[in-house]
Amino acid sequence: DEIYLLGVLANQFASLFVRQEAEETLRQSEARYRLLAENVSDVIWTTDLDFRYTYISPSVTALTGYSVEEALQLRLKELLTPASYRKAKEEIAKEVNKLFRLDPSQQRTWSHTLELEHRCKDGSTRWMEVKTSLLFDAAGTPIGYLGLSRDISERRQARQILEYMATHDELTGLPNRYLFNDRLKHALRRAAREQHSLAVFLLDLDHFKELNDTYGHVKGDQVLQEVARRLLGTLRQSDTVARMGGDEFCVILENIAQPVDAANVAQKLLEVLSRPYTIDEGVTWTLSASIGISLYPQDGEDVESLLICADIAMYRAKKRRNRYRFYHKT
C-alpha cells in the first residue's frame, strides 16, 4: 500500500510539474508573441465576427496617430476614406458570404488581401495592404478575424509614377499613343451602346521643323508644351487630347450631334494654334496646323480604321496647310 501511495503521489507531482511547465511555456510563448506584436512596424489586429476590434498593436500610433485606446473605439467607416470604405464593405460582404460556405479545413487556410486608404488623426491618409484571415477558438469554431495592415504608401506612389510614365508623354504630360488607343476603344464602346457619333482628329504642326532648325530643340519643346496647353484650354474636359510623337497630336471628340460640330471645333483649334509663340524676350514664332478628321461610324468602327482615315485626311489638309479636312473615300 505504501508503495502504491508513493506511486500515486509521484504521478500527481509529475502531473503538477508537467502542468506547471506547460503553463510556463504558454506564458513564455504568449509573452514572445505579444513582444513581437507590440514591436513590429505593421499593425496587427483582431476583431469579432462583426468586425469590432478586440486588439490593435501599438504600432497603430506610429502609422495613424491614434492611440490604441482611440483606435479600438473607431468604426471601419471612421478609419477609411469614403472610397475605400465602399470598397471594403463590398469585398467584406462578398468574402464573408463565400467564407462561411467553405468546409472547416478550407476556412483555416482562407485569407484575403485588400489595398485600402486609411485616415490618420491629423487628416492625412496612408495606403495600407490589409491581409485578413479567420480566427478560431480551441474547439475550432470561428470567433473573429486576425489581420495585418502594412503601410504601402511609398510603394503605391512609386507604382502610380511608373503607370503614369507608361501612359503619358513625358514632355507635355498628355496621354501617349497607348493611352489614347485605350481611351478610343472605350469611347467607341460607349458610342455603340448609346448610339451617338464621335470624331477623331489627327493634328500635325506646320513649319515645326523650321522652328527646331532655327532655335534648337529646347525652344521647340517649349512650343510643344504651349501647344498642349492651348489644346487642353480649348477642348472640353470630356474630350481627349494626346501627343502621338514629334509634332503630331490626336483628339477624340465624343458625343457629337453632326459633322459641323467637329468642323467648328477644328476651326477653333486652328485659330488658337496660329497665335504667335514667344521664343525669347521680343522674339516670337508663328505656326499653323493641319487637321484630318474621321467620323464614327461612317468612316470606321474600330481604332485602326479611324486613325487611318484621319491620317489620310490630314495629309490632304497638309497640301495647303492651316486647314482641316474630313476623310472622303475619293
* N to C succession of SSEs: HEEHHHHHEEEHHEHHEEHEEEHE
Q: Which regions are unreliable across 5 or more consecutive residues at pLDDT < 50?
A: 1-10, 16-20, 22-26
Broad shape: elongated
Main sheet makeup: 5 strands, antiparallel
Euclidean distance between termini CA atoms: 120 Å
Mean pLDDT: 86
Number of strands: 12
Question: How large is the count of helical segments?
Answer: 12
Strand content: 25-35%
Report helical residue fraction.
40-55%
**Rg over C-alpha atoms, rounded to the nearest angstrom:** 33 Å
Strand order of the largest sheet: 2-1-5-4-3
Secondary structure category: alpha+beta
Plain-language structure description:
The protein has 330 residues and is α+β, with helices and mostly antiparallel strands. The protein has helices at residues 2-37, 59-64, 68-73, 76-79, 82-99, 104-109, 153-167, 177-194, 208-215, 217-234, 259-273, 303-318, and strands at residues 43-48, 53-56, 111-119, 125-136, 142-151, 197-206, 240-245, 248-256, 277-280, 283-285, 288-296, 323-326. The strands form three sheets. It has a five-stranded antiparallel β-sheet with strand order 2-1-5-4-3, sandwiched between helices.
Keywords:
five-stranded antiparallel beta sheet; five-stranded mixed beta sheet; 330 residues; alpha+beta; 12 helices; disordered N terminus
Quick summary:
This protein is α+β, with helices and mostly antiparallel strands and 330 residues long.
